[in-house]
Write a structure and sequence with these properties.
Layout lengths: L2 H8 L33 H6 L11 H6 L49 H14 L17 H11 L8 H15 L3 H18 L4 H24 L6 H17 L1 H7 L8 H6 L1 H6 L2 H8 L4 H8 L11 H17 L13 H12 L7 H9 L3 H8 L3 H14 L8 H15 L5 H6 L1 H7 L17
Helix pairs in contact: 4-5, 5-7, 6-7, 7-8, 7-9, 8-9, 15-16, 16-19, 19-20, 19-22, 20-22
Length: about 450
């Protein structure tokens, strides 16, 4: 909020700056119009519509909200078409003539909305209007506004597997920034994810750490507000994309969050974050848009029954994994047929698929779907630190860590290690035998490692 806006809020209606009372009505009884200074520097669209223009460059708030091309170079002689990308015949808002410049030149034209220069200009305009980053008095500029353009380029240009499955990565790198310009929570999530990756690659550069924290916080706040108050009116693709990025960011921050929340909520923050996907997919309007949109393939992983999953069998893990699953199924009383609803049945079916197939990059969405689709009854078991639920989560972490992406390994091992350490005092030999596999993945060394018992034949 600038100084003039702050003064307007603080001033009492009907009171002059000198402190003298001033009537809000004229001598005829009609309400007085508030005096204002008329500006003739507004954009062509606002002039034509006769609405107040905030004169924001490269795009004013009115045009930015309607996704119109904003033109300050000509008089308002064109009529905007409602719902169109831009008013017919309008000039394209100029991008920066110099890369990473925070002051786009208004004279340049001819850039398409899919061009990098156009995205740079739009993002800089958004960050300027929202005063991001905001520097405290006397604090040096460690992370500057133009640094965000480096984060955008890194997000679109990184070719290694680092964002999930190849399909998901291609979709969000292609469409993410365009979607984010209409959904601030997604744009901040993109900047936070890119900054976190650069921090991982260059931990000595302070600006990446500052940018990662700042954009993650802003994204989480805006995303939470959208889910609580305006989920029905949200952009389905933007919401699902943001949910996936925030889930990964929460998982990356697992060691920090676990230390800060020690003794409070036994359910890790990253699980609750991943559960946000369920809210989006279960919202009828959003689900319909998702099933018909660019992320339809991703959504299938959240709707597909566990027994329909197919994949290449993991030969190296088949024997040990199969024995572990059989013992764990018996421990969870799965398949007993006693007529009681068992919260472990569907979870074990999905875990078995993950245990017996190769953990490749194209399986990342399937791994995230495993957590996102956990039923409230199973979440409650985790909250009560139920042994069998914790073992299942440890197995999930152990398998996820085998997918060699920058965000999977360290956090998965840290979470698996936490669970194994907690269960190391359990005196049940079957529990200790089941923990042998996750212990080996996370490096936890118990006092004694028991062998997995051979379950009785199902025949």
């Amino acid at each position: 909020m600038n100084g003039s806006e702050l003064n307007w809020v603080l001033e009492a209606p009907g009171t002059s700056r000198s402190g003298q009372l001033k009537s809000l009505y004229n001598e005829t009884g009609a309400r007085r119009r508030r005096a204002h200074q008329k500006s003739r520097k507004g954009c062509a669209n606002c002039k034509h519509r006769r609405v107040k223009c905030d004169e924001g460059r490269p795009s004013c708030a009115q045009c930015l909200e309607r996704n119109w091309r904003c033109d300050f170079s000509v008089s308002g002689s064109r009529t905007p078409t409602k719902g169109s990308v831009s008013p017919p015949g309008s000039a394209v808002t100029p991008p920066a003539s110099v890369k990473y410049s925070s002051s786009p030149s208004p004279e340049l034209t001819g850039y398409s909305e899919s061009s990098r220069e156009w995205k740079h200009a739009r993002v800089l305009s958004f960050l300027e209007r929202t005063e991001v980053p905001r520097r405290s008095c006397g604090e040096p500029w460690t992370y500057r506004r133009e640094d965000a353009l480096e984060l955008l380029d890194h997000f679109e240009d990184t070719t290694e597997p680092w964002l999930g499955s190849p399909y998901s990565q291609n979709m969000i790198q292609t469409h993410g920034i365009s979607l984010g310009l209409q959904a601030p929570y997604l744009l901040h999530a993109i900047l936070a994810y890119s900054a976190s990756h650069l921090r991982h690659l260059h931990p000595e550069v302070k600006k990446y750490s500052i940018a990662a924290t700042m954009h993650f916080t802003r994204s989480l706040q805006a995303y939470s507000s959208q889910l609580v108050y305006e989920v029905e009116s949200g952009n389905a693709n933007a919401l699902l994309s943001a949910s996936g990025l925030l889930a990964k960011l929460s998982f990356i921050n697992t060691p920090v969050m676990s230390a800060e929340a020690a003794g409070s909520d036994p359910v890790p923050a990253w699980i609750r974050s991943m559960q946000g996907v369920k809210t989006i997919i279960q919202t009828p309007n959003l689900r319909r848009d998702l099933e018909e949109g660019i992320l339809s393939v991703v959504v299938q992983h959240y709707n597909r029954p566990a027994d329909s999953e197919a994949g290449i069998i993991d030969i190296s893990n088949t024997q040990l994994g199969a024995v572990a699953i059989r013992v764990l199924r018996e421990l969870c009383d799965v398949g007993t047929g006693d007529g009681v609803v068992n919260p472990y049945t569907s979870v074990m079916a999905r875990l078995e698929q993950l245990m017996l197939t190769l953990p490749t990059h194209d399986k990342v969405d399937q791994y995230l779907a495993f957590i996102a689709t956990l039923e409230p009854s199973f979440i409650d078991l985790l909250k009560r630190m139920e042994v069998r639920a914790l073992i299942i989560l440890a197995y999930w972490c152990a398998r996820l860590s085998l997918i060699q992406q920058w965000w999977t390994g360290p956090s998965a091992k840290a979470e698996c290690h936490r669970i194994c350490a907690h269960l190391s005092t359990n005196n049940d030999p079957i529990v200790q035998a089941l923990l042998r596999l996750p212990n080996s993945f996370c490096g936890f060394e118990p006092h004694a490692a028991d062998q997995l018992p051979t379950p009785p034949s199902s025949a």
